[in-house]
């Protein structure tokens, strides 16, 4: 029973207010899946060449907009809608503890690319 209470307390602590944990992206591995999850969100299917986050740099640079992708060397996520300034609600596969979240996040330090460009 103590383990269950501790697990619930940890979960509540690690999911910020306003964040929503969503299902694991279909067809993606259980770990290191941010690139795969972004591909499923953007293209509707896993794209093996995009499982490595850095491979998203092949797309042309873009201004932030819904459907664009924020990328850095070891992580990638999809922009859903802007909250204010550089704060966005994002689809963030493998955003911590092997969970996929829709949550608010800063895009500071990320390169924005257009996966349809």
Short structural description:
This protein has 117 residues and is α+β, with helices and mostly antiparallel strands. The chain is built from 2 helices and 6 strands; from the N terminus they run αβαβββββ.
Can you characterise this structure?
The chain is of the alpha+beta class. It has one domain: endopeptidase fold (from Nostoc punctiforme), CATH 3.90.1720. Helices cover 20% and strands 28% of the residues. The chain is built from 2 helices and 6 strands. The chain has helices at residues 2-14, 34-43, and strands at residues 20-22, 69-72, 75-84, 87-92, 100-106, 111-113. The chain has a 6-stranded antiparallel beta sheet, with helices on one face. It is globular, with a radius of gyration of 15 Å.
Q: What is the strand and helix layout of this fold?
A:
Blueprint: H1 2-14, E1 20-22, H2 34-43, E2 69-72, E3 75-84, E4 87-92, E5 100-106, E6 111-113
Antiparallel strand pairs: 1-5, 2-3, 2-6, 3-4, 4-5
The total tally of domains equals: 1
Low-confidence stretches: 1-15
The radius of gyration over CA amounts to: 15 Å
Order of helices and strands: HEHEEEEE
The protein's oligomeric status is: single chain
Strand order within the widest beta sheet: 1-5-4-3-2-6
Query: Which word captures the global form?
Result: globular
Largest sheet: 6 strands, antiparallel
How widely separated are the two ends? 52 Å
What integer is the average pLDDT?
89
């Amino acid at each position: 029973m103590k383990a269950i209470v501790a697990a619930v307390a940890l979960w509540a602590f690690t999911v910020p207010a306003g964040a929503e944990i969503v299902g694991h992206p279909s067809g993606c591995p259980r770990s290191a899946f941010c690139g795969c999850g972004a591909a499923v969100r953007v293209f509707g299917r896993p794209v093996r060449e995009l499982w490595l986050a850095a491979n998203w740099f092949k797309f042309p640079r873009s201004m932030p907009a819904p459907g664009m992708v924020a990328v850095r060397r070891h992580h990638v996520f999809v922009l859903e809608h802007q909250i204010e300034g550089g704060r966005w609600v994002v689809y963030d596969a493998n955003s911590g503890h092997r969970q996929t979240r829709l949550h608010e996040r800063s895009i500071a330090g990320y390169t924005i690319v257009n996966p349809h460009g």
